[in-house]
Amino acid sequence: MNLLLIAVPSLFLAASAAPQKRIPNKPYLVYVGTYTNKTTSKGIYVYKFDPGTGKLTSLGVAAESEDPSFLAVHPSGKYLYAVNEIDHFGEKKSGAASAFSIDPKPANSRS
Length: 111
Prior knowledge:
By secondary structure, the chain is mainly β. It contains no helices and seven strands. The two termini are 27 Å apart. 22% of the residues are buried.
């Protein structure tokens, strides 16, 4: 898997629209965009990072997306944006951007 960029949300524990500060030494999610063309990668992967131990645990594919080369988490923690490094979109010569809703409690990240 070719790693491109890690989007580390400064806030991810958002249960409301109001920004919250990350709690020191409390695990949070990290998103990694990967190249997908000519590889077996599926796009955006999510990991749980424990800053207390430095452990990074893979939680799997967060979203299938073609060549997501830049990721950004919205300040609310509710959305993930990806710039798709492609030279076509549909039938036109163009790049693309994707937006995804973030589930604040994905089943595989509960612990």
